[in-house]
Amino acid sequence: MQPQTSIGTHFPRPKFSQARTVRAVACTIWIAVLTFGLPHLAFSGGSGLNIAVVVNPNSANSLALGNYYCEMRHVPPQNVIRLENWAGGNIVWTRGQFQTALLNPLLAQVSARGLGPQIDFVLLSMDIPYEVVETDSINSTTSVLYYGFKPNTAPPQQTMSCSLPFFSSNSYAFSETVFTDSPPDTAPANAFLAMMLTASNLTEAKLTSDQGVASDSSFPTQPVYLARTSDTQRTARQVLFNDALFDARILGNVRLIITNQDSPNGLSGLLGYQTGIAQLNIQPNTFIPGAIADTLTSFGADLFQATGQASLLAFLAAGATASYGTVVEPCVNLEKFPSPRVYFYQGRGFSIAESYYQSLASPYQGLLVGDPLAAPFARHATGVWNLAPGALLTGTTNLGLQFLVSDTSRPIQQVDLFVDGTFVETLTNIVPNASNILSLALNGEVISYIVTTNATLQSIAAGLAASINQISNTTQVKVVPVGDRLALRSSDLSKTGEAIDLTIGPPAASGPPRTTFITASRSTFVDSPAFAAGSFDLNTSLAWPGDYLSIEIIKTNGLSARFSATNADYDIPLVTIARSLVDQVNSDVLLQGLDGVSAAVTPSDNPASAGALVIQARASGLGPSQIQVQLSASQPAFWLSPLTNGLEANLEDVQPRNHLYVSAGVTNLSVVVSLDTRKLSGGYHEFTAVAYEGTHIRTQTRITQSVIVSNTPLAASFQGPAGSTNWAAEATLIFSIVANTQTMSTIELFSSGGSLGVVTNQANATFSVSGSYLGAGLHPFYAMVTAASGAQYRTETKWIRLLTDESGFPVTITGKPPLLSWPALPGRRYDILSAARPEAQFQLRQSFVATNQLGEWLEGSGGIESNCFYRVRSSW
């Protein structure tokens, strides 16, 4: 980091899998078991339906990771976007290259595939550049996808990247609103919650994905550490720690701990870690699934470049699910780094991408890496269809489904229908009913608010806040609306937080059905963990001999202590005299107890000041803010601050707090919808109903059912590779489709990434698909046939897993001449080698490509010794 206030590969593919040596008369069999995880059914505020996964087809790792993520997150195949126009490296591209290779194709494919209404997130699957450059400006790829490219604006004499352009401000930050309702206002057009999933190798990148999936709705109780380090510049975020800790304490499910340490070594099982230091070592398993961790330093996102500073990849390698760093020197601008409030947003139930972007005031130089959909605190409802699996649907039919919430404070507001992973229509949307009455009792006063026509959660929060603030002189409570939340602070010096009651009133006995609700975090307020402080600026002028500064501390019980320091020479800075006062204050017995104070001299934000004398209470909470500080000096101008003041520099931080939340919807929702199936193609479909929580978190509950639609005689048979659902990634897969009519328009084959090919004016078609084009992973294959009449039929979906490496496999030998057999991977080439002695050079006998799951080779004649040793290896 510069002191301007500055802060600061693919592994080669193995040619052969492990070879095994066997002898005709006796052999040792090595057994290795391959296991593949089943899909994990958990969905957060966003889900696989809402994310576009971008893969680099020139990277086998990028394809494999993208396919893996799609499998784990149930991402529809049409949501995979191939980066066809990029053949460069994985570090940097120009703004023009980014536009041509990524942004334009992404927008075009999202539009062409009808995904515009549902894509909020973008995941970049490794081996995609993370720096976007133009002239002397560098942005991160994720930030440019989020809200466009932001050029630097610093004058030439300053470090260009240290600028903070006003148009880099992120309006979504700290909003606690639905992203689609309040995207960043400086975005040029489309805005995406973009993150990259990457690591130094494919295995580690997959583990990050696993951590994200495992975290969903896990409701962890492990702590988050906010670390103050010995690096005074990089630990600048410590001024934000208390505020985040306070709101998290009110929320009640995320435990933040402020600590003084330079390294997390020795810690384990953390939900998060936020620090500020250039270098640190992190041990494996430091973090649990869902953890967010980062450090405030320069170049944390220069992932594959040597910078001498900690890379965000270190946090991911230690088990974190997401991390953040900058791609260029950012300087000490807190706006460019995540606020510790990121953990409060996560605790509310927002996904990691939503939480991170809400905590970043100016993310244009920052790269976000990890699983964007992970949501450890998302609370789901339950739901059921009234359809049996494989139900046959014709004409207009009624679809019935039911959802039941698990938490009455999180009603269901909206249900959408997706067919085959694409949004079709909103089935129901329960709005806040006009004339619903919201009432509460606060500090002995009753407040009522009537919901207006066309109200939203945000407008209700603002209206209710205004009603409460109207009587703040009586309640001594003021409210700030933040999205669907109301932040309440008490200035009542006569009461602790526990003595301030907050009770939600019962629903009105009459009026429209109740669809609008308010919920309190606590039944009483919570006292602050912060310490009241006063900051008093010193003039930059030098004191003359005999000049003095004095300070009197008057405690809340009326007792006082007075201190004075006199200058004995010329040209002694006032801050030096002030440090003498500090020593006296900190050593005075009267001020050592919890009703006392401590003192320090710190730099000041005031450019006319040489420094500031800071007086801080030794006890937390609002009461000590009334400790009085009276200043005097031989020349009054020595003090730039008022000469008498309380410890009120951070008054909002020490006031007792509580939260109110506004929600809309119902807790038990039954939906019956009339659906005209003639608008769908015939054949096999997957219906998905998505219910959304009626808060700004919008946690999803997804229920899916397979159906068959039949409204025309059109049908088609669909045949894939026979013999196995597992094939070698390098294999060529053959698919055949035969329609039941000759008057055909098109036959088209689809899989991950969209169309694989189309045949016109034929009743049957055969497609050859290169496995290497799709990459390793689980892939769905289906065909769409279109008759000349316009009628369409969608075939059933066949799932095929493409594999790369094999573990060692057992080889058995039977009979004379010996027959070798082993479990084979269809499409994989196998070599048979033999030798007269184990230590001799093995000679290649034959190579062939397996066509099914059993590999066999029979020894022929030709002078081969009966006592022979054999080796079988796979090659690709």
What is the percentage of strand-forming residues?
A: 35-45%
Q: What characterizes the major β-sheet?
A: 11 strands, mixed
Total helix count?
13
Distance between the termini: 47 Å
Q: Which term fits the overall shape?
A: globular
Helix content: 10-25%
Number of spatially distinct domains: 6
**Averaged pLDDT:** 91
User: Would you report the number of β strands?
Assistant: 51
Computed over alpha carbons, the radius of gyration is 33 Å
Low-pLDDT regions? 2-44
Could you characterize what this model shows?
The longest helix is centred in the N-terminal third of the chain and has 18 residues, at 95-112. It is built from 13 helices and 51 strands. The radius of gyration is 33 Å and the shape is globular. 14% of the residues lie in helices and 36% in strands. The two termini are 47 Å apart. By secondary structure, it is mainly beta. It has six domains: 20-34 and 806-875, Immunoglobulin-like (Sandwich), CATH 2.60.40; 48-370, no CATH class; 382-430 and 666-709, Immunoglobulins (Immunoglobulin-like); 437-528 and 657-664, no CATH class; 531-653, Immunoglobulin-like (Sandwich); 716-802, Sandwich (Immunoglobulin-like), CATH 2.60.40.1930. The strands form 13 sheets. Strands 16, 18, 19, 35, 36, 38, 40, 41, 43, 44 and 45 form an eleven-stranded mixed sheet that branches. A four-stranded antiparallel sheet has the order 1-51-48-49, with no helix packed on it. It has a four-stranded parallel sheet with strand order 3-2-5-8, with helices on both faces. Helix 1 packs parallel to helix 4 and helix 7 (342-348) packs antiparallel against helix 8.
